[in-house]
Each structure stands twice: as C-alpha cells, then as structure tokens.
Amino acid sequence: MNILTNEIIGLLTQRQEAAFEVMFSLYYPRLVYFAKEYVPYEDAKGIVQDAFVTFWEKDPEILNESQLQSYLYTVVKNNCLMYLRHEKIKKGFETEAGIRMQNQVYQSALEQLDTSEMAFQEIESRIETTLAKLPPRCREVFILSRMEGKKNHEVAEELNISVKAVEAQISKALKVFRVALKDFLPLLAWFLRYL
Question: Which segments of the protein form a coiled coil according to its record (predicted)?
Fold first, then answer.
C-alpha cells in the first residue's frame, strides 16, 4: 500500500521541496481526516500543518514510507493530545461536563493508539492479505475505487457493470476490511472511508 516511491523518499531525505510538496499533497488530507476524529475540523487542519512544519524543521531520518507514516501520525497524535489537554484545562472552569468527558475519551483513545512503524507495516500486510482473499471482481472494483480513487460511475464504465453493482462490491469489500483491520480503524478511516 505504498503511496510514495523510494525515489521520492530519497528526495525527501535530501530536503527537496518538490518531494515535500508531493508528500504534503498525499498525506495532508489523510492526516486531517484522522485528526478531525478527535478535534474540531478547523483545529485539525492547523494541527496537521504544524506536523508538516515539524517534519521540515526537525528533518528526521526517514528510510521508507512506514517510517514516514509513523512519524507523521505520531506527531499529529501528540499535537491532538496537547490540544485536548489544553481544552481540558481551559474548560476545567466551565460547567460543561459533557464536553470535558468527551475530551477525556478522545485523549484516552489517542494515548492508546499505536502509530509505530511496526503498526503501519502490519496494516500494509493485513491490507495485502485481505485484498488477496476478496473475490476477483470485488477486489478489482475495490482497487479501482479506493486505491486508484475512481468514482463509482467511472469504475462501472471501465468494468462494464452497473453503478449499483460497483456499490454492492465496495460494500462487500468494506465489510471484510472492517473485520480484518478492526484494531487499526482510527488510522485507516481515511483509507476505507465511511466505515
């Protein structure tokens, strides 16, 4: 499930701005989607932008995409935790117990979330295994839709099937992925969309 080529990873380590822009355009929406599960959308965008600034300023040693994903998701996770802790303190004097409780739940969930490189390698392995187990037509539809980003009508046209058939195959695949990747759902919400 690698998105970036080894060449782009190499250019990132050489601090090439063009490679950074490619990484940003691919990972920014995914990281915002992840962060907005825990913090308000507008704050999520700022948190993710801060993560990319941190990446550029600290220039971590990145050898592969799993390390890159681990680094970015960990920074975003930690930034979300700091945001939630700040909100907890800020709201500590207010009587909105429900908001404080929700922030505590989000904080607890984030603290337990594994964003290590090994977690991303395990995700890739499970995705490949799960894809291989899907029936051929279901796998083909899912790859075109979710991995190549084609719209349902484009997939239907390409495979000469109805849009309803495409929707049914995607639904079938999502059910299988939901079970196979249940331990990683917070990190994969952007991938499977609308679990």
Answer: none
